Amino acid sequence: MATITKKVNPRVNVGSTPWGNAHGLLYTLQTASNGGAFGADTGAPIASGDKVRLGVIPAGSTLLDSQAIVSTAMTAAVVGDLGFEYVDGVDSAAVPQDADYFGAALVLNAAGRLRNATTNAPVTLPKDAWLVLTTGGAANAKASRVDVVLTVASEGMA
What we know:
Number of helices: 0
CATH architecture: Sandwich
Largest sheet: 4 strands, antiparallel
Number of domains: 1
CATH topology: Jelly Rolls
Helix content: under 10%
Strand order of the largest sheet: 1-8-3-6
Structural class: mainly beta
Distance between the termini: 35 Å
Radius of gyration: 17 Å
Shape: globular
């Protein structure tokens, strides 16, 4: 029987901290009573089909997992796709942008914890990317709160 050993990946290391290089990034979408996002460049209600940029995922992050926590539900019928697109607007052949990398048609109109159930393989972002929530189903017309926690490993650039 053979013994097979994989080559060591120099990018997999525990970092310079005792707790390693994996951590959670928290992004919060909180809306006012009119359905508009707090802290955004517009206070207009979030309409069906709107893209909400929740924040930047740093370059060199390996995307491992995600969880959306809907603590205060959006308006009935509101769903969302959760993915990423590059800050510079230019796609990458090595790691293409993906509008629903973390999930499609996530139910945002009911309280709950929505764990990533996609079969996407982990990828390392070659450059900064927006975490994007694209809404669908209906416009949001009420106060709500959705927190997204990404579990990433900071591995740096290849």
